[in-house]
Amino acid sequence: MTRQPTVAVVRSDNRRGAVAQALALIADDLRARVTPDVLVKANLVSHLRQLPSTHADTLSAALDAVLAAGASRVVVAEGASDATAGFDRFGFRQETAGRPVEYLDLNREESAWDRVELTAVDGSPLSARVSRTVASAPCRVSLALMKTHVTSMVTFSLKNMLSSIHPDDRIMMHGHAGGGNGYKGWKRPIVEFLKGDSPLVNGLTRAMGRVRKVQSALKGKGRPDAWRTFSPAELGYLRSVEAMNRNLVALSRVAKPHISVVDGFVAMHREGPRHGTPIGLRTVVAGVDAVAVDAVAAAVMGFDPLRIGYLKYAQDAGLGVADLDGIAIVGDPLASVARRCVPHSNDAIQRHWDRLAEIGPRRESAVPAPHVRPSLAPEKSRR
């Protein structure tokens, strides 16, 4: 009989202490997974703001644990935003001085790429490049954060691995052709602006999210059968959501974390993963079954793990356990730490990821940008 995966849940008023305690609770599992060479995948969605990015205390406590468990060399890697600047700005290098730690900016310094087969929004195959350093690592540690997400509903340890994909190919994870952001002409720079990290974009995104929430409520988008009234643009976005769910599982087959730490000390809800609102959950989740860790993290934020598309698909694919009844939780009881976080404003569409078979063949002509209301969506690029 297969042993239930163990997931540690720790609530504390000290971030570093919570990470250390969570990893101590799974010490036996840790020793069984750690190898002399370890790759730590940080999450630096922003290299300017700390809220959406891995904290140095989380990195430091995780390094203490893996080095004590037998690691002798650690590579800290990231490809989102300007990782090199983030390593410095958030104090990573200072925190790890004197330890056997190297840093790798995947966007600028990775030289070898393997292939991962993905799926387009229309079901056709896509071939993306994934970092060979990440894919070949004998022990991958994902340092993720608890955040809502514009496409995948939530983002935890599995989703954190997405920036291991070549920067030109990351749009493929959304089911679109590589080499751009899915748009062309004058619309492309607008989308790039809305993906930026300035205070202006942050404020606009939060305001637009609240408007979208009100519009969804007025239009009855919360109904279980709301998908029947989706516009072509909304259906296009839903197909991108479904492509992301499928492609996260495909990526997990080649780059699934061996050890997962999800930091919810200060989590993010509403317009995540970059422009959302902070919420102090003071909770860290850790384990060696990445699917189980993400499932528990989802529950901490008030989401049903089996209603998160990529977690349901990952469990069905045998990559881990997403059913809370099949997970042994140690540390603090889940009920004592769980909070009801506000989902992304796109949740009214995201939640219908499993309805595409009933919707029928693709007929829409537009795909909404992550931060644009579906009614204002630009046309999808055919590059």
Element-by-element helix/strand order: EHHEHEHHEHEEHEEHHHEEEHHEHHH
List low-pLDDT spans: 364-383
Query: If you compute it from the alpha carbons, what radius of gyration comes out, rounded to the nearest whole angstrom?
Result: 20 Å
CATH homologous superfamily label: LarA, N-terminal domain
**CATH domain class name:** Alpha Beta
Mean of pLDDT: 91
CATH topology: Rossmann fold
**What general outline do the C-alpha atoms trace?**
globular
* Annotation, overall tally of beta strands: 12
CATH arch. level architecture = 3-Layer(aba) Sandwich
How helical, in percent, are the residues? 25-40%
**Structural class label:** alpha/beta
Provide a count of the helices.
15
Tally of domains: 1
Question: Alpha-carbon distance between the termini?
Answer: 50 Å
* Biggest sheet architecture: 10 strands, mixed
Q: Beta-strand level of the residues, as a percent range?
A: 15-25%
Oligomeric organization of the protein chains: single chain
Structure description:
- The chain is α/β, with parallel strands linked by helices.
- It has a single domain, classed as Rossmann fold (3-Layer(aba) Sandwich), CATH 3.40.50.
- The chain has 15 helices and twelve strands.
- The protein has helices at residues 15-25, 27-33, 56-68, 83-89, 92-95, 106-109, 132-135, 187-194, 199-218, 232-255, 290-300, 309-316, 334-337, 347-350, 356-359, and strands at 6-11, 37-41, 73-78, 101-105, 113-119, 125-131, 140-149, 153-155, 259-269, 277-279, 283-287, 328-331.
- The strands form two sheets. Strands 1, 2, 3, 4, 7, 8, 9, 10, 11 and 12 form a ten-stranded mixed sheet that branches. A two-stranded antiparallel ribbon has the order 5-6.
- Strand 2, helix 3 and strand 3 form a beta-alpha-beta unit.
- Helix 1 (15-25) packs parallel to helix 3 (56-68) and helix 10 crosses helix 12 (309-316).
- The protein is globular.
